[in-house]
Design brief:
Layout (H helix, E strand, L loop, with lengths): L2 E2 L1 E4 L2 E8 L19 H25 L2 H14 L2 H12 L4 H19 L1 H22 L13 E5 L4 H5 L6 E6 L7 H9 L3 E3 L12 E5 L4 E4 L3 H14 L19 E5 L2 H9 L4 E6 L13 H14 L4 E5 L29 H4 L3 H13 L5 E6 L5 H14 L4 E5 L2 H5 L1 H4 L5 E4 L1 H9 L17 H14 L8 E3 L7 H9 L4 E4 L4 H8 L4 H13 L3 H10 L3 H5 L2
Parallel strand pairs: 3-4, 4-5, 5-6, 9-10, 9-16, 10-11, 11-12, 12-13, 13-14, 14-15, 15-16
Antiparallel strand pairs: 1-8, 2-6, 3-7, 7-8
Bound molecules: phosphoenolpyruvate and magnesium ion (MG).
Magnesium ion binds next to helix 16.
Length: 560
């Protein structure tokens, strides 16, 4: 029986499974040396483990390039750092187990690094990685993180954290399968960004044996162990059809010439350069929190200016929509969010962090304004998680004070969709964050696999809220643009529906641009409107998707 989940990134491939190892648990506080182990033996074991970790990281560094190489080289040095090892040896001589000793030694060295601040503080994350690797080596279990392999493989995990995906090498990993995670989870977003076929919420897939041969269908959402002739033929066919997807010519439009600018979602300057090369007509979402993930102190204004300018420089004369920090829930930033909140998705996140940590947003707006000076970009700024008219008005006033003339809001909380007419009385534009709009409309955590079916932007209730947002934007007295920057925009069939609902721009991972452009160009605006009505009238998300897809034959032709 195949494992069935939700296909979140198209493609059909065959490959060998590598399971993501379980995270390394903390050795119990005060764990003592076993009676049968002498302190000398434990010290020798610790030294051997740290050397083994260093050798493994060095060999990975040799195979890596660019930033990843530099990080791996620096981390390898840390594994045998004399201060770290000396401190651990002291703990062992005081009677602690080697595992607990290295854990405690790392905690004190990390504290020292954090106190030094700046570059040194950022090394604390590498130190914690080394610590977990040494403990895994001492326990004789697989090292944490994405496994190393001499040959490309299909990565299977329960779910992937942003920190894991940062080290994911798309030349090594050819598909992603998770037993948890939802269609809007970080795993799904990263798979689409890297163009990797992916299936999430495939219950039981984390039990597939390491080394097993599997077939992954990222459109159908299936994973077949020991594939047969049918799957081999399907994978071969995909390899040929995928190459038929023409490059994006830089103009999103319907068959009858209705323009729908296709923009890119980016997390920093590097992404922006790639997005411009892929033909994106601008940036519809700069996730500024991605520039500073893993940081535990607020980035300085100078650092921020540099990060934003890097993005602006990639898009001269084009529009760049900067989203202010959206910390919280799946994207914690220790200097803004409280990790102990019982319900982080409903907590102090996004724009709301301005209430608990005032000043950060004001400084960020100042940095955006400074970066925009001297740039030829049209810089638009929007706040995440706006829920009320007062919040929109207050954000607009903060933008005005910073000299930013095009303030906007994300519509990702249902209350904002319902009140868009009034909200858009205060700001210049709205951008629909369909990932959060779906999780809040359906009351279904976007990170949870078992809720994947609820968490679909094809839900007619979500589509109805999108339609209401657009209707409010063209209500009497104003006519404001409404774009989409959630993952829904990257689904070519849904992109047609969104266009039919009146959305004016679509922002997505650059990998999706060619497919969305090709499918959009296959329908007229009237046909898109008809498909939008079809989806709205459907009794369920599955029926909406089915009905719309059956009217878009180009999807099957392109294998999408
Ligand atoms: C969204 O919620 O749709 C969105 C674009 O923001 P993020 O995925 O970063 O929460
Ligand atoms: Mg969001």
């Amino acid at each position: 029986m195949p494992f069935t989940g939700v296909g979140v990134s198209p493609g059909r491939v065959l490959g060998t499974v590598r399971q993501m190892p379980a995270p390394v648990s903390e050795p119990p506080a005060g764990e003592r040396l076993a009676a049968s182990t002498s302190a000398d033996d434990a010290v020798a074991a610790l030294r051997a483990a740290s050397k083994a970790v260093q050798a493994e990281l060095k060999s990975r560094a040799e195979r890596a390039h660019g930033d990843a190489k530099a990080v791996l080289e620096a981390t390898a040095q840390m594994a045998t750092d004399s201060m770290l090892i000396k401190s651990a040896v002291k703990h062992i001589n005081a009677g602690l187990s080697a595992e607990r000793a290295i854990w405690e030694a790392s905690a004190s060295v990390a504290e020292m690094l954090l106190n030094l601040g700046g570059y040194m503080a950022e090394r604390a994350t590498d130190l914690f990685d080394v610590r977990s690797r040494i403990v895994a080596e001492l326990r004789g279990v697989a090292a944490p993180g994405i496994p190393a392999s001499a040959t490309p493989f299909i990565l299977v995990a329960e779910d992937l954290a942003p920190a894991d995906t940062a080290t994911l090498d798309p030349a090594q990993v050819i598909a992603l399968v998770t037993s948890g995670g939802g269609p809007q989870s970080h795993t799904a977003i990263i798979a689409r960004a890297l163009g990797l076929p992916a299936v999430v919420a495939a219950v039981g897939a984390d039990g597939i044996a390491d080394g097993a041969e599997v077939y992954v269908d990222g459109t159908a959402g299936t994973v077949v162990v020991d594939p047969g002739a049918e799957e081999v033929a399907a994978a071969d066919a995909w390899a040929t059809t995928a190459s038929r997807l023409v490059d994006f010519d830089g103009n999103g439009r319907t068959a009858d010439g209705h323009l729908v600018p296709l923009l890119a979602n980016v997390g920093g300057a590097k992404d922006a350069v790639k997005a411009a090369a892929a033909g994106a007509q601008g940036v519809g979402l700069l996730r500024t929190e991605f520039c500073f993930l893993g940081r535990d102190s607020e980035p300085s204004i100078t650092e921020q200016v540099e990060a934003y300018r890097g993005v602006f420089d990639a898009f001269p004369d084009k529009k760049v929509v900067v989203r202010t920090l959206d910390a919280g829930a799946d994207k914690p930033l220790p200097f803004l969010t409280d990790a102990t909140e019982p319900n982080p998705a409903l907590g102090v996140r996004g724009y709301r962090t301005d209430w608990t940590t005032p000043g950060v947003l004001e400084r960020q707006l100042a940095a955006i304004a400074t970066a925009a000076e001297g740039s030829t970009c049209q810089v638009w700024v929007m706040a995440p998680m706006i829920a009320t008219v007062e919040e929109a008005a207050h954000f607009a006033s903060m933008c005005a004070a910073a000299g930013l003339t095009t303030p906007g809001v994300m519509v990702e909380v249902p209350s904002a969709a319902l009140r868009s007419e009034f909200i858009l009385g205060h700001v210049e534009f709205a951008s629909l964050g369909t990932n959060d709009l779906t999780q809040y409309t359906m009351a279904a955590d976007r990170q949870l696999g078992p809720l994947a079916a609820l968490n679909s932007p094809w839900q007619p209730a979500v589509l109805q809220l999108i339609g209401m947002t657009v209707a409010g934007a063209v209500a009497e007295g104003h006519d404001k643009p409404v774009g989409v920057c959630g993952e829904a925009a990257a689904d070519p069939a849904l992109a047609v529906v969104l266009t039919g609902l009146g959305v004016s721009t679509l922002s997505m991972t650059p990998r999706a641009l060619a497919a969305v452009a090709a499918v959009l160009a296959s329908v007229t605006l009237d046909q898109a409107k008809h498909l939008a009505q079809l989806a709205l009238a459907a009794p369920s998300a599955a029926a909406a998707k089915e009905r719309v897809r059956s009217e878009l034959p180009i999807l099957a032709e392109l294998g999408l």
